[in-house]
Write a structure and sequence with these properties.
Elements lengths: L2 H36 L2 H17 L6 H15 L2 H29 L3 H4 L7 H21 L3 H6 L3 H26 L2 H26 L11 H6 L2 H20 L1 H8 L2 H37 L5 H37 L8 H16 L1 H10 L6 H22 L1 H27 L4 H26 L6 H23 L3 H30 L17 H13 L21
Helix pairs in contact: 1-8, 1-13, 1-22, 2-6, 2-11, 2-12, 2-13, 3-4, 3-11, 4-6, 6-9, 8-9, 11-17, 12-13, 12-17, 13-14, 13-16, 14-15, 14-19, 14-20, 14-21, 15-18, 16-18, 17-18, 19-20, 21-22
Length: about 575
């Protein structure tokens, strides 16, 4: 698959996904605001708490989904329909077994709820109905959601995004109408939980048309699973799944059991903003990049070329992480205050710790994306276990002293072993480069981002909370980190390559608009005769050449690529 095709598909996936998420983001804001006008925040607390419980139950999937996805990348590159069909059949049967397992374990977990729900004002039968409605929705999703993966690995995730967008808009409008009429949480919840079921049914029907070979019968034998090394991969991956489920699925449980269910609802308001931003800037922008990486890693590119490309992505990740994380620092509190009111604010120390957690996650997001396409889950599994243990231990102890900020501190500290395991795998074990020089560079970059955060805080701390000053905050947030980062990086060869990539991407977008304009003219009453492509326009051939030059050339890194940082090209001895 050539690089122009990869880039064009990545741009299409990301562009459509970003537009869809912006619409969904606005609807979620309106939806939650109206919800809190009619119902108490405690209801949202139950929804968030049970969501965390079901995250823990997701370990029943054993990590097979990610293992199968890893194998699918190679088969998609080689266009092996028979093998893709067999892998998707394995996926289908695995998820049916998972659904049955989740039903049994979820039913058993119901009896633990009295021990983790604190300060409830609802009758127990009502809480039970909420729990089993959410459990039923989770189980239903396992029967159909596996079809999404074929679009993801084929770099056509925009198909799923379009379907999700239209269904989500319809469902959220229905929610608002029924909420205003009935003011009943159970009606609201049933409509909300139907979203995933409807989306997955539509995606399954469409995948039957787009990939008809998936409807063929594909017998699966134990010998086949052994040849694919599934059992060994799953044995290693299950450690990842359990550890990450504990890491990511216990915060609301700890909040509920120590601080009370109402705090879960308050935290949920912040998490709603966080999840919308993450979907916009991480899932919808970076997931298409992962599919592209899967295609590139299993191509004939040299490892040296891939390392040079990784360093370009690393520069992008710093710009990306500092800009988005400081957005949380600048906007989190005034957004909650304007949206819901001062009664729904959490402490500023929580916001600072949350901002640092976001920064570290985003600056090493590209490391995670590389790590995800390689498989070999044995290498970093015990680092995942360490993170799970740390999260619970630090959160419980710190919550006694600092409340919800202490629980966020546990999340922050526990992320560090996860990041270390991934960096060790990608930088040291795959690329054979110095992990410690890489850390030194990022320590300097973290200090730069922290300085930018202090400056942003100083410039915005006394601003009134109203719409005009909200816009002024946006000016500070946009220009302060961006200006400082450009000043630091403008001489770096990797930054120059990054700018070259962006120009190529803009060229692809501009080329598409020009082609659409020609089609529109050709459809008019007086079609024009064909003309030669204007000089300087972006054709498929010129785009391909530009991208090849931007992504495959070898760079001799200049010293002091980042002011005060040592270049990370030395090998680990």
């Amino acid at each position: 698959m050539d690089s122009s095709s990869n880039t064009a598909k990545t741009l299409k996936n990301s562009g459509i996904a970003v537009f869809a998420q912006i619409i969904s983001f606005l609807l979620v804001f309106v939806n939650r605001k109206i919800f809190l006008m009619f119902l108490d925040v405690e209801y949202l607390g139950y929804q968030s708490l049970f969501g965390n419980v079901f995250t823990l139950l997701s370990v029943a999937e054993l990590g097979l989904g990610q293992v199968i996805t890893f194998h699918l990348y190679r088969e998609v590159v080689e266009r092996n329909e028979d093998e893709i069909g067999r892998l998707m059949t394995v996926y289908k049967y695995v998820y049916r077994i998972v659904a049955a397992t989740v039903l049994v374990i979820g039913g058993a977990c119901y009896f633990l709820l009295p021990y983790i729900i604190k300060d409830s004002t609802l009758e127990w039968w009502y809480i039970s109905v909420i729990y089993f409605l959410q459990l039923g929705s989770i189980i239903a999703s396992y029967f159909l959601s596996y079809r999404r993966v074929i679009y993801r690995v084929s770099q056509k995730e925009y198909v799923c995004v379009r379907i999700d967008l239209f269904v989500s808009i319809g469902i959220q409008i229905l929610q608002l109408i029924f909420l205003a009429i009935f003011r009943n949480y159970l009606v609201y919840l049933i409509i909300n939980l139907s979203t995933g079921v409807i989306e997955n049914v539509v995606i399954t029907l469409k995948s039957n048309r787009d990939y008809p070979f998936l409807k063929r019968r594909n017998p699966i034998t134990r010998a086949y699973l052994k040849t694919k090394n599934f059992f060994q991969d799953v044995k290693n991956m299950i450690v990842h799944r359990i550890a990450y489920a504990v890491y990511s699925g216990t915060d609301n449980v700890v909040i509920s059991s120590i601080l009370g269910i109402r705090y879960v609802g308050l935290y949920g308001n912040y998490f709603t903003i966080h999840s919308s931003v993450v979907k916009l800037f991480v899932r919808h922008l970076m997931t298409p990049v992962q599919a592209t990486l899967g295609n590139i890693v299993y191509s004939d590119r040299s490892k040296e070329s891939l390392w040079e490309q990784f360093k370009v992505f690393d520069v992008f990740s710093f710009f990306y992480a500092s800009q988005i994380s400081l957005g949380f620092l600048v906007f989190y509190q005034p957004t909650i205050q304007l949206w819901l009111g001062s009664d729904y604010l959490l402490s500023y120390s929580f916001v600072v710790l949350f901002t640092i957690t976001i920064y570290l996650g985003l600056v090493w997001e590209i490391v995670y994306r590389y790590r995800s396409v390689f498989g070999d889950f044995k290498q970093d599994r015990w680092w995942m276990v360490a993170s799970a243990v740390l999260n619970i231990a630090v959160s419980i102890v710190a919550a006694q002293y600092w409340g919800i900020a202490g629980i966020q501190l546990g999340t922050l500290v526990a992320f560090l072993p996860i990041a270390h395991g991934r960096i060790r795998f990608v930088v040291q074990n795959y690329f054979h480069r110095s992990m410690w020089l890489y850390y030194l560079k990022h320590l300097v970059l973290f200090a730069v981002a922290a300085g930018e955060g202090v400056l942003c805080w100083f410039l915005t701390k006394d601003m009134p909370v109203n719409f005009p000053y909200y816009l002024l905050r946006g000016v500070v947030w946009f220009f302060v980190p961006l200006s400082i980062n450009v000043l630091i990086y403008f001489r770096s060869p990797y930054f120059k390559r990054l700018m070259k990539y962006f120009r190529t991407a803009l060229g692809i977008i501009a080329g598409k608009f020009r082609r659409k304009k020609k089609v529109a003219v050709a459809a008019g009453e007086q079609p024009l005769p064909p003309t030669e492509e204007p000089t300087g326009s972006v054709t498929e051939e010129t785009t391909d050449a530009a991208i090849e030059e931007a992504t495959e050339e070898t760079i001799d890194p200049e010293p002091n690529e980042v002011a005060g940082a040592t270049d990370n090209k030395g090998e680990e001895k």
